[in-house]
Structures are given as structure tokens and as C-alpha cells.
Specification:
The complex is a heterodimer of chains A (about 525) and B (about 350).
Chain A: H1 10-23, H2 25-37, H3 41-78, H4 85-91, H5 100-111, H6 116-123, H7 135-146, H8 148-160, H9 164-171, H10 176-205, H11 208-212, H12 218-224, H13 230-254, H14 279-310, H15 320-350, H16 354-365, H17 371-384, H18 395-419, H19 423-432, H20 436-465, H21 468-473, H22 481-490, H23 494-517
Helix pairs in contact in A: 1-15, 1-16, 2-13, 2-17, 3-4, 3-7, 3-8, 3-10, 3-12, 3-13, 5-14, 8-10, 8-20, 9-10, 10-13, 10-18, 12-13, 13-16, 14-23, 15-16, 15-18, 15-20, 15-22, 16-18, 17-18, 18-20, 19-20, 20-23, 22-23
Chain B: H1 4-25, E1 33-38, H2 46-56, E2 59-64, H3 67-77, E3 85-88, H4 91-99, E4 103-104, H5 108-111, E5 125-138, E6 163-165, H6 170-183, H7 185-197, E7 201-202, H8 206-215, E8 220-224, H9 226-234, E9 240-243, E10 254-262, H10 268-278, H11 281-289, E11 294-295, H12 325-335
Parallel strand pairs in B: 1-2, 1-3, 6-7, 6-8
Antiparallel strand pairs in B: 3-10, 4-10, 5-8, 5-9, 5-10, 5-11
Helix pairs in contact in B: 3-4, 6-7, 6-12
The chains are: A mainly alpha (about 525), B alpha/beta (about 350).
Chain lengths: ~525, ~350
């Protein structure tokens, strides 16, 4: 390993190039097919301009509100003396785990007569909406299902920040809100930006929820034309990818201080901020979010489920193997995604490598490519790269698809984790022991752990609910909870879909607690 | 909560268990194995395939997925595809593979098991069950006396804002293609535009429309008849009911689910055996009695509570006869502004 104090080790550069190339595979496939099929640019443009505008509008709106909501909730569950913080930390992450179409359907069921939200709205004397469709409903539902993308990294960042900064500001005469705004928020900006970017990318790639909520976006064009007019379909996918790349590149350059290691952090014990007179208001707010984003859809799913369990249509025992398979792919993907992106984060932040920046954009963009496109692209590459066809319909190819799709969620968190190790601490570490590995284990890793755990957690939650790539790429006969949910939901077997979804939420809660929160 | 060590042990056990489970579930290829890609989901076909295995000793490896996605997968896999048989929920996806020359011709013996109207004219696929296009309506919001006898009545302003459709879904596109065959492109285009002008709400698929009608979000919806029977089986309080258009109306066309053999399959004999099984008595009875569909083999009657379909109204859709085929249909739907 050749390394100098200021130079970048060759293996890190090589790793960055390789990662960038692999993550670019779906995009290259789409460009190749779009060129080959030669869709008519003019007519495609006129067809997609409206949906594209709506995609951007929705993604910007959801990105803004989810960032605000996720940041507020993160502060409350990490920093304040909110009652039941440990429970909220877990519950408030779980809305992320609903597969998009199921979450939206369960939400609509809750608004319909007999549903929890319908009853609540009536109980305060209002008329529940008969039809909940269009921009505002899509905005609201997606915000409620995506804010955890912001909550997890911001909470991890908050845990690594010393409260002495805020205290100092208050000693100097700032109000509490003023101190948060002028001292804490700037420190949170990279995490908020990373999370907000994930929300934006998720929103432009979503199909299930926006379609069910009657808001027409670019993904509808990609899906509706995938058999009948493939040229238009691939040109639309090209547009989606270019949009994702542009926004990722913009986000990476947005904060000049974003990519540098932090000089001011460390791990400090600190007392919780007393909320005082607004403690009950805060509790009410957090409860309301959990009620609408988690309890309401879960109750709808339970209603479906209980009908089937009551008359024996649904057999819980049949879910044992899918449950194990789901946990297995989730854990393996989460670990692998973190391992793949950490060196990239190191070379980006400590060495400020240009190559790594380009690779990072490729990694980030992967999240916006619809799962079906990632799946088809890996079919293409596996079968057309000489010597690689043996990997087709095997487990490693499925995991590779997941890592490409969700690596971006680990990357943002990994950069925050690397930033949490200030240069001074690394330097003083050198004085303690000459062993690089010992230093990493005993000095750097503990500082990085909250960030890495939050990234692994996001990847885990996304993987366990992933559908299109799982259906197309898994070894034939490999069943997961999400394939069970899809199979049942597709043809209207709601009892069975509801039961599998509840099991998925429970499994996600258990894994998030055991693997992420306990370690963060 | 349990201590860290127990948690770690539990996770290791979980991973080990999953490995064993996934190893057990992968099928062995002993030469007498047939691989099917099925757009019909597990609940709608698994028992039939199990019976086939028991009867013939041929193992059936099953890859379930969305019909359109599986068709794209087979096309992308090309000659490397492990698929021997493709079962599609609708004619569009088999039509796509037919156009891409990925299907092998079926023998006359198999084709003759169904009436000519529900199979491909060139003999590349056969229908094996049918779903009739109907209007599902909410029993609280719609008075049965105002239900239309023809899809063309839905252009009336009385239906403004009350209709649900699934313009990006295969079965709606196949139905519009059929409408073009029977009534011509101009009539079809005019009707689509009238629907859009009547503020028809668009949904991703049939089951979503049936759920929306049940919730009262829209009053009526254009769907395949199957989904409302399913919804009633799930929830006896579901408020949707099916209404059939006149049997001569283009709106009551039968959409078939289709079976085909993949070009290059080295198991075409076993594949034909499977398709014959799907058209045999026990499978056809299963489709009639268990999945609320229309059996297509002559001599098998639909279940008692399913209204009889008029076979005169059934049309096999010939995509090649139509200018532009499915692509033109899709463009007409988009041009009408139905999707936005």
C-alpha cells in the first residue's frame, strides 16, 4: 500500500473508479437502449414535459417538508427531554418500511368510512374528504413515508455534536431557538442535505403511491410505455437519470464546507434540553405524526389481515421462510453497502478526490432509477459480459442490484461518519499507537458508528421492501415478504397482503432496534 | 429487551436458517423440469400446477411476476432464457413477445382445444381463461336504473367526475385495441376524449379501481369482472357490484389470459402437455369455481353466480391487423389526455 501523508493511496482511487463504474451500469444500459431504439425525441419531449415538471415540483415540495419534519423530529428524540424518547426513536423510523403502493392503499383505506382517520376527522366535526387525490395528497403521503430518510442521518449527526456549542451561544445571550438556528442548524446542514436528497430521488422514482393518489409523473410514462413504445420509455428513463445526476451533483457542490472533515466534534455526554412548557405540545406533535404515518396505515392492514386470519384463509406459518429470506437479504445488503461506500467517503472527504466525486454522483443517482430498470440492466450486463453469465439468477446478482439501488443511502451517512472523525483526533491517535488497524478500531470506528449505523439502517429498511428487482432477479422460487405482499395485493388478496405487510413492519422494527438503534 | 449477546446469537441463527431455507427452496434440474414465467399470481394457478406435477411427474419451476415485466425479462434474456412457458394476464404481453419473435408456434392439437376467437390467428398463443369487461358500481351512490347499457353512454355529462379508469394498465389498453377493431379508430378516439372531458379519474390498475369504488371515491369504474368477486370474498361489506353492458356492446369484450411456449425451449413437448392441462377439465373447473373466471374450453360452464358471457361478444384481438397495434392504442389514450 503506497501512501504518503498528503497523497491518496492507489487502492482507494482504484476502488473509487470501480465503484463508480459498477454503479453507472444501469444508466449506461438505459442510454444504450434509448439510442438503439431511437425514440422520436420531438414527440417524446412533448409527451413528457408535463409529467417531468410535475415530478420535479412534487420532489422539491416533498424534499422540503420531509427535511423540515425529519429534522424537527430528530432534534426532539435525540436532544430534548421528550417523554418516551427511546420508543419514539424506533416508531418514527418505521413509516419508511411500507412498500409504496401498500402504504398509499392502507392510508386511503384509513380515510374511507370505517377507517381510523375517517373517524378522527368526523370526531372533530369535519367532513372527511370523499376523494383524496392530486398534488396535495401525494405531497402529504410521500412526506409522511419519506421523512425517516432525513430523521436517521440528522439524529446520528446530533448525537455526535457537543451541546457545549449551543450552551456557549446561550451564555452569550441567544435565546434557545436563536442558538439552535445559529449554531446547531449549520452543523446539521450536511445531514439534512443528504437526507433531503434521498427524499427527492425517492419521490421522482416512485410509481406506486403517486399513481394511486392520482398524480401523473414521469414514472407513469416509463411504465405505461414499457411494452407498447419502448423508445419513449427509455428516453423518459434517460431523462429521469439525467435529472437525478444533475440534482446529485448540485447537492454535492451546495455546501463548500460539506465535504471537509469537521474540526469541532467529538463524543460528549450531555444533558437533555428541557422542553419546559412546550413538552406536552411536542409530545402531541410527535404522537400525531406517528398516528397518521404509522398507526393509521397499520390499523388498515390489520383490518384486512384479521378477516383472513379469522376464517383461516391466511396461514402465518407460510411466512416463516419468506421472513428469514427477507432478514437475510436485508442484513447482507446493509453491511455490504456500507463496506462498499466507506472507502469512497474517506477518499472524498480526506483526500478531496475528483474521481471520487464523480463516482459519488453515480452512486447517488442509482437511487432514482426505478427498480425494474435496474433489474433489466443487470440481466443485460450479466448475460452480455463474456464470462459473467454464471452469475445470472443467483443470489450475488440480486444483492448487487440492491447495493446499486440503495448504496446512496449508505453514502450520505458514511460521509457524515467520516466527517465525525476530526483530523486532530486522528493525529493524536498516531501518538498512541503505530498500528493503523488498532487506531481505526479504537479511535475512529467509535466516532463513526452513529453515522454508519444510520446508513446501514436506511439500506436495510429499503431492501426489505424492494420489489421489482427482487421479482425479476432473485433465484427462481426465492420468496421474500415483499414478493408475498405483491403476489397477494396484485390480485386483490388483501387479507394475505395485509398479514405479510404487518409481519414486514414487525421484522423491520426488530432489526432496526437490534442492529441500528442499539448501536448508534 | 434481551441482552446484546442473545441478540447477536439470534441474528447468527437467523442468517444460518435463511441460508438453509434458501438452499432447500432452489429446485434441482433433473431433465424433467419445466420452467414457467407466470403473470398469473400464485393464488390463481399454483394448485393447478401442483396437480400437473402429481399427474405427470414433471417438475414445474415457477417464476411469478407482473406480465409486462416478465415479457420484458424474456426479451432481455434472449436465447439464454430458462423459461419454457409464459402465462400472461392479458393478450398485450404475449403480443409483445410475438412481435419480438420470442414465441414458438403451438401445435394444431393444442390450438383446437379452444374456439378460434380466443386464440392467436397465427397460432402462437391460446387463451385459457377469460375476464369480462364490466362496469363496477358503488351500491350506495348509484341507482341501478341509471346504469348504462353501453360504454358510449358514459360520455353523457350525467357521469361527469364519477368514472374510474386504468389507462396505463394492460387490460384497458387491450380493451381499447379491441374497440378500435370493432368500431374503428375515429370512434375509439372520440370515446376516449369524451371520457377525459368527463373528468374520468385514472388509477394504476383494476384492483385499485374496485377498491376506490368500494370506498366511494368514484361511483363507477371500467374493470375486468374478476376483481369485484375477489373484493367481496375479502370483505362481505364491500359496496361494489358488477354491471354488464349489453352483450353486443364493445364494452363487454372478454379479455383472455394467455399461454405460450418460448422459442428455443428444449422442453416443448412437456410445455404443450402443460398447456393442454390448463385447458383440461379440472383446470378449467378451477378457473370457473375458484377464481371466478370464464372457462374457455367448450363444455365447461362458468360458476353459478357468474352471469353467462355471450361468446358472440368475445373477440380475439389481432394486433397485427390494426395499424400501429398496441403502440397506436397507447398513443390514442395519451392524446385523449386520459392519463393526466
Amino acid at each position: 500500500m503506497s501512501s504518503t501523508r498528503s497523497g491518496t493511496p492507489n487502492w482507494l482511487v482504484g476502488h473509487a473508479v470501480l465503484v463508480g463504474a459498477v454503479f453507472a451500469l444501469p444508466g449506461l444500459f438505459v442510454f444504450f437502449r434509448a439510442a438503439q431504439l431511437g425514440g422520436d425525441l420531438g414527440s417524446t419531449a412533448s409527451e413528457v414535459v408535463g409529467p417531468l415538471g410535475r415530478s420535479v415540483l412534487l420532489a422539491l415540495s416533498v424534499g422540503a417538508t420531509a427535511t423540515a419534519l425529519g429534522t424537527m423530529l430528530a432534534w426532539l428524540v435525540v436532544r430534548s427531554d421528550l417523554p418516551g424518547r427511546r420508543m419514539w426513536r424506533l416508531l418514527l423510523v418505521l413509516p419508511l418500511v411500507f412498500p409504496s403502493f401498500v402504504g398509499a392503499a392502507a392510508f386511503l383505506t384509513s380515510l374511507a368510512p370505517g377507517g381510523l382517520l375517517h373517524g378522527l376527522i368526523e370526531s372533530v366535526g369535519l367532513e372527511p374528504p370523499r376523494r383524496f387525490r392530486g398534488f396535495f395528497p401525494a405531497w402529504m403521503v410521500l412526506t409522511l413515508f419519506t421523512y425517516p430518510y432525513v430523521l436517521l442521518p440528522v439524529a446520528a449527526r446530533l448525537r455526535a455534536l457537543p451541546s457545549s456549542l449551543e450552551e456557549g451561544a446561550r451564555v452569550l445571550g441567544r435565546t434557545r431557538l436563536g442558538a439552535i438556528r445559529s449554531v446547531t442548524l449549520p452543523q446539521l446542514r450536511p445531514a439534512m442535505l443528504a437526507g433531503g436528497l434521498l427524499v427527492f430521488l425517492y419521490t421522482i422514482s416512485d410509481f406506486g403511491a403517486v399513481q394511486l393518489l392520482g398524480y401523473d409523473t414521469l414514472t407513469r410514462v416509463i411504465f405505461a410505455t414499457r411494452l407498447s413504445n419502448r423508445g419513449v420509455s427509455f428516453l423518459s428513463a434517460t431523462l429521469l437519470i439525467l435529472l437525478a445526476v444533475a440534482i446529485s451533483a448540485w447537492a454535492r457542490s451546495a455546501g463548500p464546507d460539506q465535504l471537509r472533515p469537521d474540526e469541532r466534534v467529538g463524543r460528549f455526554e450531555r444533558p437533555a434540553e428541557p422542553l419546559g412548557s412546550i413538552r406536552l405540545v411536542a409530545l402531541g406533535f410527535v404522537s400525531a405524526v406517528a398516528l397518521v404515518a404509522l398507526v393509521a396505515p397499520v390499523l388498515s392492514l390489520l383490518t384486512w389481515s384479521i378477516r383472513g386470519l379469522a376464517d383461516g384463509r391466511v396461514d402465518l406459518g407460510e411466512l416463516a421462510v419468506p421472513l428469514l429470506n427477507t432478514a437475510f437479504v436485508g442484513i447482507v445488503t446493509a453491511i455490504l453497502a456500507v463496506v462498499v461506500v466507506v472507502p469512497l467517503a474517506v477518499v472524498t472527504i480526506r483526500h478531496r478526490s475528483k474521481v471520487a466525486n464523480v463516482s459519488s454522483v453515480a452512486v447517488t443517482g442509482g437511487f432514482a432509477v426505478p427498480g425494474i430498470v435496474i433489474a433489466l440492466s443487470l440481466v443485460f450486463w450479466a448475460l452480455n459480459t463474456p464470462g459473467f453469465s454464471f452469475i445470472y439468477q443467483t443470489f450475488p446478482l440480486l444483492i448487487l442490484a440492491y447495493v446499486i439501488h440503495f448504496g446512496s443511502q449508505a453514502l450520505g451517512a458514511a460521509e457524515i461518519a467520516v466527517r465525525a472523525v476530526p483530523d486532530e483526533i486522528r493525529e493524536s491517535g498516531r501518538l498512541l499507537t503505530p498500528s493503523r488497524w488498532l487506531r481505526r478500531r479504537q479511535v475512529e470506528f467509535p466516532l463513526m458508528r452513529p453515522g454508519l449505523a444510520s446508513g446501514a439502517g436506511l439500506v436495510l429498511l429499503s431492501t426489505v421492501k424492494e420489489l421489482p428487482a427482487t421479482l425479476l432477479l432473485a433465484p427462481i422460487g426465492f420468496e421474500t415478504l415483499s414478493t408475498e405482499i405483491w403476489g397477494a395485493y396484485e390480485d386483490g388478496f388483501y387479507a394475505s397482503a395485509g398479514t405479510s405487510s404487518i409481519v414486514l413492519v414487525a421484522l423491520s422494527g426488530l432489526l432496526t432496534w437490534a442492529l441500528v438503534l442499539r448501536r448508534a | 429487551m434481551f441482552p446484546p449477546k442473545t441478540a447477536r446469537l439470534a441474528i447468527v441463527a437467523l442468517l444460518a436458517g435463511a441460508l438453509v431455507a434458501s438452499a432447500c427452496s432452489s429446485a434441482s434440474d433433473d431433465g424433467n423440469t419445466l420452467t414457467i414465467y407466470s403473470g398469473r399470481t400464485e393464488d390463481l394457478i399454483d394448485p393447478i400446477l401442483d396437480d400437473f406435477e402429481a399427474e405427470t411427474g414433471i417438475t414445474v419451476v415457477r417464476n411469478y411476476g407482473d406480465s409486462a415485466d416478465l415479457a420484458l425479462l424474456i426479451d432481455e434474456e434472449g436465447d439464454a432464457t430458462p423459461a419454457d412457458v409464459f402465462l400472461s394476464q392479458s393478450p398485450g404481453a404475449v403480443g409483445f413477445l410475438d412481435d419480438a419473435e420470442r414465441l414458438a408456434p403451438l401445435s394444431g392439437d393444442v390450438l383446437d382445444l379452444v374456439p378460434a376467437s380466443v386464440r392467436d390467428d397465427d397460432g402462437f398463443w391460446v387463451g385459457f381463461s377469460g375476464r369480462q369487461r364490466v362496469l363496477v358500481y358503488n351500491t350506495d351512490l348509484v341507482d341501478p336504473s341509471e346504469l348504462p347499457s353501453s360504454i358510449f353512454d358514459l360520455a353523457d355529462p350525467a357521469w361527469f367526475g364519477r368514472i374510474g379508469v386504468a389507462p396505463s394498465n394492460g387490460s384497458f389498453q387491450d380493451f381499447v385495441t379491441s374497440l378500435r377493431t370493432t368500431n374503428g379508430d375515429d370512434v375509439a378516439q372520440e370515446w376516449l376524449e369524451a371520457l377525459a372531458a368527463n373528468d374520468a379519474q385514472s388509477y394504476p390498475k383494476n384492483s385499485a379501481i374496485v377498491a376506490a369504488v368500494g370506498r366511494g371515491e368514484v361511483d363507477v369504474g371500467l374493470v375486468n369482472h374478476y376483481y369485484n368477486y375477489r373484493a367481496l370474498a375479502e370483505d362481505p361489506d364491500h359496496r361494489g357490484l358488477n354491471h354488464q353492458f349489453d352483450e353486443t356492446d364493445p364494452g363487454s369484450v372478454l379479455i383472455v389470459t394467455a399461454a405460450s411456449i418460448i422459442e428455443g425451449s428444449d422442453q416443448s413437448e412437456e410445455a404443450e402437455q402443460l398447456i393442454e392441462w390448463l385447458l383440461g377439465d379440472s383446470a378449467q373447473r378451477f378457473f370457473a369455481d375458484e377464481t371466478f373466471e370464464y372457462p374457455l374450453a367448450p363444455g365447461v360452464e362458468p360458476a353459478a353466480d357468474i352471469p353467462p358471457a355471450s361468446f358472440a361478444a368475445v373477440g380475439g384481438i389481432d394486433f397485427e391487423d390494426l395499424g400501429g397495434g398496441l403502440e397506436a392504442t397507447r398513443e390514442m389514450i395519451t392524446a385523449a389526455g386520459l392519463e393526466g
